[in-house]
Amino acid sequence: MNKAEILRYLRTNSRTQDEGILSLVDRAMEQVECTAMPRTLYRIYDCCVTDDGVRIGDRFFRSKRLADNMAGCSRVVVFGATLGTGIDRIIKANSATDIAMAMALQAAAASKIEEICDDLEQQIITKHGVTLRQRYSPGYFDLDISQQRDLFSLLELTKRIGLTLTDTCEMVPTKSVTAFIGID
Questions:
Q1: Burial (CB count <10 Å: 0-12, 13-18, 19+), residue 85
Q2: Neighbour tally for 45: CB within 10 Å
Q3: Is the pLDDT of residue 15 over 80?
């Protein structure tokens, strides 16, 4: 995990010398490392990029910005990643007793899931010898969060890595990411 990033998530100066804050972040990082049970899944699909979205098989993901991000791509990585339910449990438990620690855990978990996503991207690059575009997730800009349902269906995320959706398309566990990545 990246301590400077965690401090930034906490809206603190990344070069802080405050021993209390640094100790809190260290404890949060340790708890997240011990509790996280990362699971990831990705698939590579052929796709068709149009002016207003991306078609993958029989599903159309309507988003001008996603289309702009993937312009010229004929293949896409679709992935899901999660830290598991243990992270949600420790954040919730600390929210009732130690709000500062709960905030530090939130920040450390956010950094950890980004690390997991970055590592997955690197694995894909190495395994497939490809160049990847920037990740783009449902809920960004004009890609409606409800399109999360089609992404989940494509990957069978609930069955394969235990990631579920609420009625409002929020992911459970909360420290999870889904995304599209165009392949150059």
A1: middle
A2: 16
A3: no
